[in-house]
Specification:
Radius of gyration: 16 Å
Helix content: 10-25%
Number of strands: 10
Strand order of the largest sheet: 1-4-3-2
Order of helices and strands: EHEEEEEEHEEEH
Largest sheet: 4 strands, mixed
Shape: globular
Length: 144
């Protein structure tokens, strides 16, 4: 599948507080809001459909990780792949707004196939999000 023909994904995730999560995805991440109810909200997450669902605040977050290029990467996580220019702009905007990162913006696999910018952050419910940036998304995304 080429980058220009990728279909949007749909992902539904749990959140502990709908209003808190709405503020994070709308104001902090800049996602536009779609349909909603008293228990869930659709967001345009970089062209993909992200749905946040209110669950009990007592639902425990998963706390696993795997080592990737010297960093402990949270599992599970989700995110988007951007071109490097857009990735840098997003990282700068979030840094300037005082966003706390789980893993700060940096270049992973420097000088190797698949070199990429990456950073992780957590939404208020503890969902881990990764944002990747490639100089050539189509040519580097699945590079070995």
């Amino acid at each position: 599948m080429s980058g220009s023909n990728i279909a949007p994904f749909h992902l539904a995730i749990p959140v502990r507080d709908l209003a808190e999560a709405r503020a994070f995805y709308r104001e902090t991440m800049g996602c536009s809001e779609g349909r909603s109810s008293a228990h869930w909200i659709d967001f345009n997450f970089f062209g993909h459909q992200l749905v946040i669902h209110q669950v009990s605040p007592d639902v425990p977050a998963l706390a696993a990780s795997n080592a990737v290029d010297g960093q402990e990467v949270p599992v599970p996580h989700f995110g988007v792949v951007l071109n490097l220019t857009d990735w840098r702009a997003l990282a700068q905007r979030l840094t300037a707004s005082g966003q706390t990162f789980g893993i700060a913006p940096h270049i992973r696999f420097k000088g190797e196939p698949g070199e990429q910018g990456t950073f992780f952050l957590y939404d208020p419910s503890g969902n881990a999000l990764e944002f990747k940036g490639f100089a050539d998304v189509a040519g580097q995304l699945f590079n070995k």
